[in-house]
Amino acid sequence: MNNSFTIGGQIVDLVHSRIFSGVIVVEDGKISKIKEKAIGNAPYILPGFVDAHVHIESSMLVPSEFARLATCHGTVATVSDPHEIANVLGVKGVNYMISNGKKVPFKFFFGAPSCVPATAFETTGGTLDAKLVEKMLASPDIHYLSEMMNYPGVINGDPEIMAKIAAAKKYGKPIDGHAPMVTGEALQKYVGAGISTDHECFRQEGALEKISLGMKILIREGSAARNFEALIPLMASHPDKLMFCSDDKHPNELVKGHIDELVCRAIDLGYNVLDVLKAASLNAIQHYKLNVGLLQPGDDADFIVVDDLRHPIARQTYIKGEKVAENGVSNIKYEETDTPNYFERPYLYAQDIFVPDEGKKIKVIDCLDGQVITKCFTAEPKVVNGGIVSDVERDILKIVVVNRYQPYTPAVAFIKGFGLKRGALASSVAHDSHNLVAVGATDSDILHAINLLIEHTGGVTAYCSTEMMAVPLPVAGLMSNEDGYQVAAAYENVNALAKRLGSTLYAPFMTLAFMSLLVIPELKLSDQGLFDVKKFGFTSIYEDENTEMPAV
Amino acid sequence: MNNSFTIGGQIVDLVHSRIFSGVIVVEDGKISKIKEKAIGNAPYILPGFVDAHVHIESSMLVPSEFARLATCHGTVATVSDPHEIANVLGVKGVNYMISNGKKVPFKFFFGAPSCVPATAFETTGGTLDAKLVEKMLASPDIHYLSEMMNYPGVINGDPEIMAKIAAAKKYGKPIDGHAPMVTGEALQKYVGAGISTDHECFRQEGALEKISLGMKILIREGSAARNFEALIPLMASHPDKLMFCSDDKHPNELVKGHIDELVCRAIDLGYNVLDVLKAASLNAIQHYKLNVGLLQPGDDADFIVVDDLRHPIARQTYIKGEKVAENGVSNIKYEETDTPNYFERPYLYAQDIFVPDEGKKIKVIDCLDGQVITKCFTAEPKVVNGGIVSDVERDILKIVVVNRYQPYTPAVAFIKGFGLKRGALASSVAHDSHNLVAVGATDSDILHAINLLIEHTGGVTAYCSTEMMAVPLPVAGLMSNEDGYQVAAAYENVNALAKRLGSTLYAPFMTLAFMSLLVIPELKLSDQGLFDVKKFGFTSIYEDENTEMPAV
User: A65 in contact with B at a CB cutoff of 8 Å?
Assistant: First the structure.
């Protein structure tokens, strides 16, 4: 491969905040020289975009396919937390991501997941204790300690947590934060521990407090959480403290755009173009000390070519001097990959999800469209033959979480908000432990949807009596090993079926995947049982004397 | 139920070819009186529409659901040949159709299928010999001998065939024809045997010859064959010889329209409104002596109410005085039904569809979009590991027909025209024996698609590595027992997936279903082997000295 050439244009030098006409000489994938020279009517050359925090797994694509889609949007690098696969496969999963990522000319910077498992109240396939995390951080393939979600642990000086933080410091690697709604003294302790970023802000006030304590803020806009609109005004006051990230980006949305979308939106809102471009590349590159080129002599030749600086959609994307994408088509080839998984689940039967009526009201999870938090209330159950079943009329449906690592009895609860009129949905993407989660209009539908999932050892499924669909995700039950564009189309299709079954949610499978996320209030369902996040402990599905929920 | 009321309007009396203003008195579902009376600005009341030849099974709906959808389009009756289910289940299948149809207020007139099996070169689940056919014809629930496809048998006086015809005559029941391209002396013999209709004309000449011999012509416009445009000019010259029929109507198209569409199109073309309406009701009612009302005193109160006689879309549909549909919504309720089937097929393995390379060219079925006839040619095979496989580049794909009644070795051949780039399609709707038919880009895809079909004991499936869909048809592997609108949506969805897999055909599953229809030239595939229709016998898939096909 000959990565030596020259390219001329309006060079956007974010390091020195200037734009000049010139020629870049690329030799063996590196920039050997930049000559200022008048060039008429040439396109702009600027550093490629960086997603400063993204779980590749949420794209349902392996890294090599993620790269194919992302490079078309001018993305050249990601700071990536392999948290999801680590919950399934532990260190083996992290190593899979690293080695798969190396198959393609794209710059993945993986971190060591800091919180696997996320809580002690759920069952994961993998566990990363302080020793394993330290071992990972010692590797040159691990670039940071990622997403310290256990902020109570940090604030209270939990020894295991502090050992992980100490290990990151020992190897001089940055520590990423995750501190939604943490403020005041608690936040000071959290930042004082050495945590330097946060991507969980959804209001300017919180972000400003964090910035005042020295943190960098990642403006997140992905498939799950969307904070761009709330936080972009910070671009006027604190541009050097900002980066862009997607956190979770589903394949059908990654096909449409990536960091380039946020750049265009910010410029359209009137923010300074160079400030916006820095948030999309330089700020992340410098903060994480990423080996990504910034158009300086000696840098890797990582850059994009755009025609309109106010609408910087990549016409060409270069990584290490290799043209990896042009006009929306990637030159990266599809790569075969193996399919590591951890999936030990026998088929389910009716008695596994039977819920006896005890003559009491039941607690109901109240899910809110587009949000990962839930509310809760109590209601009279619908009882058939002594068992509590889904009530389509009142939209109080049975939800099931099934341990996929051991053959234990499923956890069953009830949820409002999905709106299914018939059929069932199931997914092996279920944060953070990625057990199996399903919701449905009847017990039979739920069993069919879960068993279809089990048959394919993971994926997302929609089942009803007139049709059934499965999108297999054989890599850890989280990712497909196939072409990204086809996966995107398949995911759109199963989503459409979910809506045809009556779901009124914007993204039914996404909401479903977060109903088992125990760290976000109020009422959630782990594979081990119904979980009251405020009390941070399990709770009965039946109303009892301790129940403090509105009755409906 | 009170089916006694009066209704006023512009009454369209097709029996006396007049339209008059009046009031119809309905008592107990029958018209007791019609009074001429001036009524200002009232809607039109006309006889309901009759589909003069339709295989209900092709709608993928059981009769009770077919009725729900059809009544919304002003259809009150069908002349229906239960040929498809008879091939699977014999007399038991026919009886299922009759008894299911009786559950709803719709007028089904079933016939005795005349040709089950259709040929001796395929395996069916059911057989109807002359004795059984005579027994059926003796029943008041059987109204005619349907679709005498075996015209060579009629012309040559085959005793079994002649016995079936004699039985129909004995009970005074009409005999339906099916004589594509039969002319001259042969046609005279065919008509002379007492066969009085034909729905296989696709040119005016053929139709005129049949009319001259006394036959009635059914203008067919369905999902499979579309002859309306070619034959509608006969409406000017021979209106009293014509009826409308759909023959095969898929659920997604039945949702959109039925005989009403043909009526509107014919009126739009300028043909006499009364002539067109007669072809849509009176002509069939009189020919088949159907107990369907024609707005005469004493008749059943079967009629529709329309606002615009030149665009007669039913605002209300009445059958025996019961308002069965209004404004596109049926009052017929969904009825539970059992799911009789004949499906004895173990899963398939790779060796079952392995085709050894013999160093020779292979014969290839050349399918044509929107047609049931095929062409053929010979080509060099693509060989991998000693076996002949699908060649996506040249669009020469493996096609498999699998006996679903006995566990015999599948028949395998090759076909051009499907255009699949990946994945496979499979169907248990496969004329006329309804074995399993599949086509695919790789052996593995084909096995998955067929095994998915076997898992659901029938239906249509599409399989690829990124997604899979199944539309189960548990009633004989031909029909769903579920809501017709949902079945229509499911069928649209699996069709869309087939196209996403690369198929360029208008209706890939329909074309697939006709590749095993041995009575239509040139090269077809039965469960027993590749079939040369011109020679009317089996042929090797390898080129041999007798091969008379163009080489490609």
Answer: no
| pLDDT at B345 > cutoff 90 | yes
Question: Cα-flanking dihedrals φ and ψ of residue B367, to 5°?
Answer: -90, 145
| In the block, residue with structure tokens 């039969």 | B182
Which of B339, B316, B408, B363 lies closest to B85, judged by CA?
A: B339
Cβ neighbors of B212 (< 8 A, separation 6 or more) are none
Going by C-alpha positions, the residue among A130, A100, A125 that lies closest to residue A113 is: A130
Best interface-test mutation with A: which of B422, B460, B467, B480 has the largest number of A CBs within 10 A?
B467
| Contact across the interface for B480 and A469, Cβ inside 8 Å | no
Radius of gyration of chain B from Cα atoms? 24
Tokens for A13?
């030098």
pLDDT band at B180; cut points 50, 70, 90: confident
User: Are the C-beta atoms of B47 and B292 separated by less than 8 Å?
Assistant: yes
In this complex, is the C-beta atom of B445 within 8 Å of any C-beta atom belonging to chain A? Answer: no
Confidence of residue A454 (pLDDT cuts 50, 70, 90): very high
With pLDDT > 90 as the criterion, what percentage of chain A qualifies? 93
Segment B488-494 shows an average pLDDT of 95
- What lies within 8 Å, CB to CB, of B437 at 6+ separation is B399, B400, B401, B402, B426, B427, B430, B512, B513, B515, B516, B525
Task: Give me the half-sphere count of Cα atoms (radius 13 Å) on the Cβ side of residue B399.
Answer: 35
The answer, yes or no, to whether residue A237 has pLDDT greater than 60, is yes
Asked if B494 lies within 8 A of A470 by C-beta distance, the reply is no
A339 touches chain B (CB under 8 A): no
Distances from the Cα of A548 to the Cα of A364, A464, B369, angstroms: 12, 36, 65
Please answer yes or no on whether B467 and A497 come within 8 Å at the CB atom: no
Tell me the C-alpha distance between B475 and B457, whole Å: 9
* Dihedral sign from CA coordinates of A56, A57, A60, A64: positive
Contact A248, A55 (CB under 8 A): yes
What are the residues whose beta carbons fall under 8 Å from the beta carbon of A74, sequence distance 6 or more?
Answer: A48, A49, A258, A259, A260, A304, A306, A312, A313, A314, A317, A325
Q: Which residues in chain B have their CB less than 8 angstroms from residue A490's CB?
A: 466-467
B183 SS3 class: coil
Strand A18-27 and strand A5-13: the pairing is antiparallel
Which helix (H) or strand (E) is A71 found in, with range?
A: helix A63-71
State the Cα–Cα distance between residues B174 and B154, nearest whole angstrom.
Answer: 15
**Considering chain B, what is the average pLDDT of its residues?**
96
Residue B329 bridge partners (DSSP): B326
Whole-angstrom distance, CA of residue B289 vs CA of residue B283? 10
- For residue A489, the chain B residues in CB contact (below 8 A) are 466-467, 500
- β-strand pairing of A75-80 with A49-54: parallel
A251, with CB counted inside 10 A (0-12, 13-18, 19+), is buried
Instruction: For A350-396, write each residue's pLDDT tens digit.
Output: 999 999 999 999 999 999 887 788 999 999 999 999 999 999 999 99
Tokens of B248: 């095969």
Residue whose C-alpha is closest to residue B440's, from B510, B352, B369, B353: B353
CA distance, residue A102 to nearest chain B CA (Å)? 23
What is the 3-state secondary structure of A171-235?
Answer: CCCCEEECCCCCCHHHHHHHHHCCCCEECCCCCHHHHHHHHHCCCEEEEEECCCCECHHHHCCHH
Contacts with B470 from chain A: Cβ below 8 Å: 467-468
- Distance from C-alpha of B212 to C-alpha of B203, rounded to nearest angstrom: 15
**Distance in angstroms (rounded) separating the CA atoms of residues B497 and B471:** 12
Alpha carbons B223 and B241: distance in angstroms, whole number? 23
Q: Determine, for residues A493 and B490 on separate chains, whether the beta-carbon distance falls below 8 Å.
A: no
| Pairing label, strands B362-367, B424-427 | unpaired
**Residue type for position A460:** V
